Amino acid sequence: MISEELLSIMCCPETKADLVLDGNFLVSTDKETRRRYRIENDIPVMLIDESEVLSPEEWVEIMKRHGR
After folding, report:
1. Distance CA 49, CA 46 (A)
2. H runs (alpha helix) in 1-65
3. Nearest-angstrom CA–CA distance, 30 and 48
4. CA-based angle 37:53:43, to the nearest 5?
5. Which of 5, 12, 18, 62 lies at a C-alpha separation of 20 to 30 Å from 51?
6. Burial 10-23 (b: 16+ CB within 10 A, else e)
């Protein structure tokens, strides 16, 4: 599990936006890119080429769930 302290210093490698922890993923708060990075064995895979771009609707739902 990623600690709140670590999450507070991590950012999206593409936009430098904040991230929210959503299950086994870190989701960028940037509404333009809407990137989601997976976490494998408690290690975030922060490679842009391996990230997923969420649909606007899915991204909005995740942001609402996390109060963003």
Report:
1. 9
2. 4-9, 56-65
3. 14
4. 5
5. 5
6. ebbeeeebbbbbbe
Cα 45 from Cα 67, distance rounded (Å) = 24
Q: What is the CATH number of the domain that holds 60?
A: 2.20.25.10
Number of compact structural domains in the chain = 1
Alpha helix ranges (H) inside the chain: 4-9, 56-65
Nearest in space to 24 (alpha carbons), one of 52, 9, 50, 43: 43
Confidence of residue 65 (pLDDT cuts 50, 70, 90): very high
Tell me which residue has tokens 């991590």: 10
**φ, ψ dihedrals at 23, nearest 5°:** 65, -125
CA dihedral 63, 56, 8, 1 (to 10 degrees): 80
- Give the domain range for residue 38: 4-65
